[in-house]
Amino acid sequence: MVPKTYFQVILFLLSSLYVTSSSNRVADYDNWISWNVKNYQKKTILETKWKTQDLILRKAESNKVRIIVSQDGAGDFKTITEALTSIAPHNTRRVIVLIAPGVYREKVMVPRTLPFITFLGDARDPPIITGNETASATGRTFQSATVAVDASYFIAINIKFENTAPHEIGSRGGQGVALRISGTKAAFYNCTFYGNQDTLYDHKGLHYFNNCFIQGSVDFIFGSGRSLYENCYLNSITKKVASITAQKRTNSSLESGFSFKDSVVTGSGQVYLGRAWGDYSRVVFSFTYMDKIVISKGWSDWGDQKRDLRVYYGEYKCSGPGANLTGRVPWTRMLTDEEAKPFIGIQFIEGDTWLISP
Ligand SMILES: *[C@@H]1O[C@H](CO)[C@@H](O)[C@H](O)[C@H]1NC(C)=O
Ligand SMILES: *[C@@H]1O[C@H](CO)[C@@H](O)[C@H](O)[C@H]1NC(C)=O
Ligand SMILES: *[C@@H]1O[C@H](CO)[C@@H](O)[C@H](O)[C@H]1NC(C)=O
Ligand SMILES: *[C@@H]1O[C@H](CO)[C@@H](O)[C@H](O)[C@H]1NC(C)=O
């Protein structure tokens, strides 16, 4: 249970201080617990502000338009880029871009000035948006994305995002992003993300992924987003040792983190669940089936031991051979019900204020 009254909060904090003043690690943990409690309180205070944002969203949803992209000329546009270019900037209504089946070899940018865009594909034959750019070819990992979204309120349903750049073992600059999401309040349903190194750049903002398939070799879910992944299938194609996530959190006051719930971790190679990109990296897996590919240590500090005291790597009610706790690094957190609670619902991403049913 999360403490509810002010009095309970004080008691709770005092008792945790009393029990745990013995080490830095536990002090950090207490700091985090108190942050989490405060966050719950702040949420109530900020409710009014969020209601305003909801109004903007509600207005956009009540006034939707649809445009059709089809390569055979039967729609309004033949490419996704043409469709996006047709939308007047700073639109206040949702624009549903219906994308007919096909392979779209396009580098797609959804700029900050185009909020409320939905990419909607056909569930039986999802369109594939593909590219093969790499960090070395474009100068930066950031630039390699096949699809880059800087806008808020983006939604994708039944879309395959792909980056086919091969990853040579030991090569530099081979990172090839399939999707970069930098806008906030974005949701992905029934989407597929194919790539090798750095497939899904969960860059920043509040994000929701449901029923998605995410494949890659190294750090294939990475970035500073605050994201909830539900019913997702994480498929490693590494041939050696790699990490599935590289969550970046450089400061204890940042609210970013990845939460995976009711998901599956499988594929090839030997994988860590996460490696710390920044001292305060935060990742939680709950109710997730973990195949034997998960290395028994579970997590990596990326060679920087001071991170052992600062990262928040939690597991809760996971199953499968990879979830066996024997051999886990001592700084893994086996979460209690109370500790897990903030991570295992849409409140982790403030979803109750912006997630709409697709
Ligand atoms: C990337 O794709 C283009 C277009 O299909 C192709 O011409 C090029 O050879 C590919 N590059 C690599 C490195 O695979
Ligand atoms: C996603 O796929 C499932 C079947 O796997 C289907 O039941 C659901 O309606 C789809 N969701 C959307 C938003 O199309
Ligand atoms: C963490 O970030 C906050 C807000 O950006 C900033 O005020 C604070 O100085 C940062 N702390 C550290 C240790 O960098
Ligand atoms: C976990 O792994 C250890 C060491 O390999 C093994 O002895 C133990 O039986 C395993 N536990 C479960 C529940 O499979």
UniProtKB/TrEMBL annotation:
Metabolic or biological pathway, per its Swiss-Prot or TrEMBL entry: Glycan metabolism; pectin degradation; 2-dehydro-3-deoxy-D-gluconate from pectin: step 1/5
One Gene Ontology biological process: pectin catabolic process
Pfam family, one: Pectinesterase
InterPro entries: Pectin_lyas_fold (IPR012334), Pectin_lyase_fold/virulence (IPR011050), Pectinesterase_Asp_AS (IPR033131), Pectinesterase_cat (IPR000070)
Active-site residues, Swiss-Prot/TrEMBL: 219
PROSITE patterns found in the cross-reference section: PECTINESTERASE_2 (PS00503)
Signal peptide limits: 1-23
Keyword presence, Secreted: yes
EC code(s) of this entry: 3.1.1.11
Domain Pectinesterase catalytic: 67-352
tRNA processing listed as a keyword: no
Group of enzyme by EC: hydrolase
Gene Ontology MF, one: pectinesterase activity
Reaction catalysis annotation: [(1->4)-alpha-D-galacturonosyl methyl ester](n) + n H2O = [(1->4)-alpha-D-galacturonosyl](n) + n methanol + n H(+)
Entry keyword set: Aspartyl esterase, Cell wall, Hydrolase, Secreted, Signal
Subcellular location: Secreted, Cell wall
Family (UniProt): Belongs to the pectinesterase family.
Protein name, UniProt field: Pectinesterase
Lineage of producing organism: Eukaryota, Viridiplantae, Streptophyta, Embryophyta, Tracheophyta
